[in-house]
Specification:
about 160 residues, mainly alpha, single chain
Amino acid sequence: MTFPKQELIDALRETAQRLEDGAPYAWTHMGACNCGHLAQTLTALSAAEIHAIALEKEGDWHDQVIEHCPTSGLPMDYLITELLGQGLTRDNLAHLERLSDPEILRQLPVRERNLSFRVRADVVKYLRVMANYLEHRLAEELHRVTREGMVRSSVNMSVIV
């Protein structure tokens, strides 16, 4: 995971809420699956638009993310590049499609880690846990940066005195 962004955290939560509220979900539809729903939130493209773009290449999201080429000129590679620009990595997207990121799953109690990537409720749970995890990482990073800045300031002040 690259440095988490608040916009990504908000998009994960918004996507989870839309799914929980009954947005059309179909793991076999490239625009209405796990990554497809997050892509809808982050890009404002419709499920149909994402699906049409995705069908220009072979494979599901997992396959297409692994084979991503930012210079291919294909709309799906452009879409994936847009998602990567939000702070995701190719691994994050591949794991999201299968609900399989070990770091995210470790945030759940052991008995709740066996998620099915085709079950809406499990996708909602995964998205929320991922958002919470990233929010925690963001807070830690901001705390670290602030602490380092304070240390540098005190060192600079001692040099001046």
